[in-house]
Amino acid sequence: MRFGHFDDARREYVITTPKTPYPWINYLGSEQFFGLVSHQGGGYCFYRDARLRRLTRYRYNNVPTDSGGRYFYINEGGDTWTPTFMPMKKELSFFECRHGLGYTQITGTRNGLRAEVLYFVPIGQTAEVHQVTLKNEGSTPKRFKLFSFVEFCLWNAHDDATNFQRNFSTGEVEVVGSTIYHKTEYRERRDHFAFYHVNAQVSGFDTDRESFIGLYNGFGDPDVPSAGESKNTVASGWSPIASHGLDVTLAPGEEKKFVFLLGYVENPRAEKWEKPGIINKTRAEQLIAAFSSSEQVTAALGKLREHWEGLLSNYAVESGDEKLNRMVNIWNPYQCMVTFNMSRSASYFESGIGRGMGFRDSNQDLLGFVHLVPERARERIIDIASTQFADGSAYHQYQPLTKRGNNDVGSGFNDDPLWLILGVSAYIKETGDYGILDEQVPFDNDPNNAATLLEHLKRSFDHVGHNLGPHGLPLIGRADWNDCLNLNCFSETPDESFQTTGNRTGRTAESVFIAGMFVHIGPDYAKICEYKGQSAEATRARAEVAKMERAVLEHGWDGEWFLRAYDFFGNKIGSKDCPEGDSKILIEPQGYCVMAGIGVATGEAKLALDSVKERLDTRYGIVLNNPPYRDYHVELGEISSYPPGYKENAGIFCHNNPWVMIAETVIGRGERAFEYYKKIAPAYLEDISEIHRTEPYVYSQMIAGKDAPRHGEAKNSWLTGTGSWNFVAISQYMLGVRPEWDGLCVKPCIGKEVPEFTVTRKCRGATYRIHVKSTGGTGQVKLVVDGTPIEGVIVPFAKPGSTVHIECEAS
Ligand code: BGC
Ligand code: NOJ
């Protein structure tokens, strides 16, 4: 069942009923100011850091689920309603939510009054525009009240949700004309404040939540809108809000627009005050002046559209499959932008207070993002590398505001360092900017301890190479990519975090997955060394990689698939020999080792992927492991803590599905790769939205696996490495166009189902038009470049400004 439809021409998903199977959200902003907005106007916004600089309040796991947002209440002759449906839930004769790229427009009509709310963050601004367009569609004049509403968060979202003995006394506001200023803690150490403005004269305002809503009421039956009169309250402590009250009249057919602006301002410390106790509003007034008319809003929205048009033109496919086109051309790159910005911090499943920017996650997010804005990828690489420790290991995350590593979700995940090499390689392949390797980058943010980025990569490589276990395989540390494989944790006590709790320091638990990564990513490190004239180091690196490959085939092969790991006691994980009730096969090394080319020549690769098909594939995607762990295992940790079929215990953990897709292209089975792709790519799931439940335009982290009662039900939409990796799988391996070290690689491997397509790829200033006839999915290709047949699959990089025409026959 569908709950809307794609509008590809406008690059929007159009939701036509408020009652979707779960709140379907969108993101506003892509630089410093960010907002989350649901199809019912729910959500919140923040400046740079969802934990430390939260502007508006949101209560997670609320009842109803999606309560609290930027709301507009209308009171027409005593009939009070909200055009976003929530929170008043009054019947609407028309409802529509259009989620577009960086904006959302929600329309509701009742009693012949059409109210449309447009939400977006203009490029370059630290503010959200909420433009309300009201139209009288009836035949008699209308006179009604409009009330805006936002609830402020007292900045630090964690304290805001916990430290009430303090918070209920700190709230402060100022009201000047049509602008409400939120200045809690501005009197002391904060140099920032927020404001909510409307470009019209108000008939009243409110800033005290209890007065506006009523102590015993909720968002759905608030006092002021129901009574139709603002109370002009000035908050003192408790919960500051901002609400404007407006009198509106509309002749039949008449339309009026109001521009509301929710802004964030920082003042230099010396310029904080206009006079004692009164904030200096100069910067806020400048921001307000930039959005005081709907013409300015239209121009800013136009700029946002153009911005996205430009970004998306860097990779585009035209094929006969409209679902494929909309995933590759619109929604997948859009999600990559969002994951790049948010990492795993703020979504409807990530509270914004738990996790900052992940070391591993952010490096992988680069893979699907780097072709959009390479300069920002560069900056991110430096930020990430600056949190690395001198021994090559890493904090698992850092806070975006301070850019410093923190230990909230631990450290010592031994896969982390390798992802930095992968991220840097993707950046250099895209841009040719080898200069980044010479940048001086600190360790653990200590300016007195810095080295070149190249040296950081060496330490990453060596951190794995110098930490091998008894089988010559990499030690897993706290865990590898699978955060839940906690082989040294041994937690017996409830409430201990598997991610941070006491690690045994034994040097026995080994990861075949990290070995696969080393073989996959190590050659990139060697190539980089070669470019820097360090051929001895390149030779050393290649020798270590070759040794690791031998170790995998000798100690990491189980007969029909790759083993997953050895535990603390040296027992095999993910083996046919594992006892009843334990998993016998796990997905990660199957995909990753084959991506690395291990066993391709000798047959193990094909066997491993056949085992994946036989044991892990389902109608909704490939599960992580099978059978699921039945009982908790203290020597395995969190993986065995989940009920069978969910999350890392046999859920369809989408992030690793593209590894299998890419692996299938490595052994020349493009048809199978595309079959797996269609199982998890959201546009193909639109028709089963009632089962899938999350947004049909973005990937979710997890879909319940075959052992779960709710097989096919997704959770944790938006912030997942699936975004980047599935973009890589489809665009670089199945459609087959990717920048490599020495040129653009063109090697489609998708099969007959997409018989003909054209990819337009911009790279290093040149444009490549690649027309493909695909008669089979073996990965065999013949290329004709500007009329001349070439050998192989690498098209040399062309001069900036030129256009290269490529004809490709893929069989
Ligand atoms: C989840 C993992 C996640 C980890 C992050 C675990 O509870 O299952 O998916 O990576 O927390 O800290
Ligand atoms: C989610 C985390 O963000 C990611 O880093 C991890 O690899 C996966 N979970 C698997 O555990």
Structural account:
With 811 residues, this protein is α+β, with helices and mostly antiparallel strands. Helix content is 27%, strand content 28%. A ten-stranded antiparallel beta sheet has the order 1-2-9-10-11-12-19-16-15-14, with helices on one face. Strands 6, 7, 8, 13, 17 and 18 form a six-stranded antiparallel beta sheet that branches. Strands 22-40-41-45-42-43 form a six-stranded mixed beta sheet. Strand 9 and strand 10 (103-110) form a beta hairpin. Helix 16 (657-666) packs parallel to helix 19 (722-734). It is globular. The chain starts with a strand and ends with a strand. The model has no long low-confidence stretch (mean pLDDT 97).
Count of β-strands: 45
Structural Rg: 27 Å
Question: Roughly what fraction of the amino acids lie in strands?
Answer: 25-35%
How many helices does DSSP assign? 19
State the helical fraction: 25-40%
Structural category is alpha+beta
| Straight-line distance between termini | 36 Å
Lateral arrangement of strands in the main beta sheet: 1-2-9-10-11-12-19-16-15-14
What number is the mean pLDDT?
97
Largest sheet at a glance?
A: 10 strands, antiparallel
Question: Could you outline the blueprint of secondary structure elements for this entry?
Answer:
Layout: E1 4-7, E2 12-15, E3 25-28, E4 33-38, E5 43-47, E6 54-56, E7 71-76, E8 79-81, E9 94-99, E10 103-110, E11 113-120, E12 127-136, E13 142-155, H1 157-160, H2 164-167, E14 173-176, E15 179-182, E16 192-198, E17 204-208, H3 209-213, H4 223-227, E18 240-250, E19 255-266, E20 273-275, E21 278-279, H5 282-290, H6 294-312, E22 315-319, H7 322-342, E23 357-358, H8 359-369, H9 374-385, E24 395-398, E25 405-411, H10 416-431, E26 440-443, E27 446-452, H11 453-465, E28 510-511, H12 512-531, H13 535-555, E29 565-566, E30 572-573, E31 585-586, H14 587-595, H15 604-615, E32 617-618, E33 621-622, E34 625-626, E35 652-653, H16 657-666, H17 670-680, H18 689-692, E36 700-703, E37 714-717, H19 722-734, E38 737-739, E39 743-746, E40 756-763, E41 766-774, E42 781-785, E43 788-790, E44 794-796, E45 803-810
Parallel strand pairs: 41-45
Antiparallel strand pairs: 1-2, 2-9, 3-4, 4-5, 6-13, 7-8, 7-13, 9-10, 10-11, 11-12, 12-19, 13-18, 14-15, 15-16, 16-19, 17-18, 20-21, 22-40, 23-24, 24-25, 26-27, 28-29, 29-30, 31-34, 32-33, 35-36, 36-37, 38-39, 39-44, 40-41, 42-43, 42-45
Helix pairs in contact: 7-8, 7-19, 8-9, 8-10, 8-19, 9-10, 10-11, 10-12, 11-12, 12-13, 12-14, 14-15, 14-16, 16-17, 16-19, 17-19
The structure holds beta-D-glucopyranose and 1-deoxynojirimycin.
